[in-house]
């Protein structure tokens, strides 16, 4: 999970309990590199999607074979995946 996702879902409140439970199930939390940030910007420009965090998620996923993106916004994620030019990332709406 990219660190910007953690920033988006974390509030520092007791209601974060599901976030902590989910974090136990993921392999790792990855810091976003400058290269991934640039790729995310390119994907935003190509796709027309404006959400920076979604673009970072797809850029990270595209760099990791076999990635699956769980999202409440499958339309934007799919548009970003299509913008990679090599849609090898799975998208699952939740």
Write the layout of secondary structure elements.
Elements (H helix, E strand, L loop, with lengths): L2 H7 L7 H9 L8 H14 L4 H11 L5 E4 L2 H10 L6 E4 L1
Keywords:
94 residues; two-stranded parallel ribbon; 5 helices
Verbal overview:
The protein is mainly alpha-helical and 94 residues long. It has one domain (3-93). Helices cover 54% and strands 9% of the residues. The chain has five helices and two strands. The protein has a two-stranded parallel ribbon with strand order 1-2. Helix 5 (74-83) links the parallel strand 1 (68-71) and strand 2 (90-93). Helix 3 crosses helix 4 (52-62) and helix 4 packs across helix 5. The chain starts with a helix and ends with a strand.
Strand content of the residues, in percent? Answer: 5-15%
Q: Low-confidence spans: pLDDT under 50, at least 5 residues? A: none
How many structural domains in the coordinates?
1
Q: What is the succession of H and E elements?
A: HHHHEHE
Report helical residue fraction. Answer: 40-55%
DSSP, total strands:
2
User: Over all CA atoms, what is the radius of gyration?
Assistant: 13 Å
- Globular, elongated, flat, extended or rod-shaped: what is the shape? globular
